[in-house]
Hints:
alpha+beta, five-stranded mixed sheet
Amino acid sequence: MPVQSQGFAFRYFDKILCAVVGLGLLVGIGYGLARNAAFAERVNPEEIARDLTELRRRQDESPPAADEPRLGEEVLGALRRVESPRPVRDTMLPPLPYVYSEQRVPPEESFELRFDSPLAPGSVLVEGNEFALDILDHPVDGDYRRVRVASKRWEERASVVGMDGDVKHIHPVVIDSEVGRPPYPPVEVRIAERREAVRLEFEPDPRVAQEEVAIRNYEVWRRDWSDPVGDYALVAAVAPAARAEPDTLRRQPGVPTDLPPGVPEEVLREMRRRQQPVRQPVRPQPQEAEPDEDDLVVSWMDRDVEPGRRYAYKVRTVGHNTFPTAGEFTDPLTAEILPNIDFRFTMPGVDGVRVEVARQTEDGRTLTERFWVAVGDEIGGVRRDRRTGDVQDFTTGYTLVDFHARATVPGTGVPSSRIIYADRDGVLRERYRNETRIEEFWATRSR
């Protein structure tokens, strides 16, 4: 086969291709090195650090981007949210109305009704007989619980109603010509001071019987003087004293007098037959006999008191056929409960006085102890019983303010020593030598 001549490029094609690729690689490496060198010369590291700091500051100051709510996320959040249960409301039946006690008023008289909740403006009206009452004013002095009403001249029955939201308030009113007698306050109010309770005694006004005033009860209001901002509060509703009826039936001998009510008649007859009772004639008392005055005295005992405290009481009358229903209060009376601890000043000293403190225990025993008290110190203290080791509390709560070695007992002219002390309420009091407040403590004292 004859040899064919070939060109230079064809003969050295692979070598030329490798040389071109190598040259391109060298050019690329050289260009990259030159570019990095030029970039290093133009960029300052301090400027880069300053730019990064500024970028971070702007990121911190800018508010976070709000996340786009996903589809159904609000519904799922409401289903998973835990809330306190709402009050159950019956949508089919309205709430029950609030009915107040019946108010009896005389004809042609203006009076005021007070509701427990504020009534909505424009909701107050008269029901039952709209011609029996007139709504004069609502609210009264800015109080939406008060309604001023006027009665007509004839006897009727109606109701003043109002709305508090969905609740209807109903206040029945009866116009009665027999109503209108004043609720006279009680007279001769007396207070008996005791250590354990306070006995309050009073008598009805004589005009109550003369004018046939029907008394429902007597309200007793009390104030505790230890509360500086406290006010009087209702503590009791005392029933009026009933006149004693003559006992015209005498018990048969042998028949128990403390039988419970409702004992069958055949049981009583059998008991009488077995005991062989003797019937005795009974002389009925005359009808015109007047009851004893003591039967009309109303007495009430307040046992919810604490020793050493002071209380004030006042009483008012609440009637059935009176207008207004409740009358004026009596003048307040103050009662101080005797404490279960007392002291007496026995001897003056150079910088103080000696006192003897007596305390009554729960089992009725009276313990005494002597103390030296300086001005500004509390009268009394704490002692430990030498025999039993028990700690006895003789603190009185009183503070010695001053003492006088020479003084005169008022009204007697007898010379004596005197101390000035402050009680638990900060009231200054005086006590002379050997003067006590509870004499029985010192008569039954024990060491």
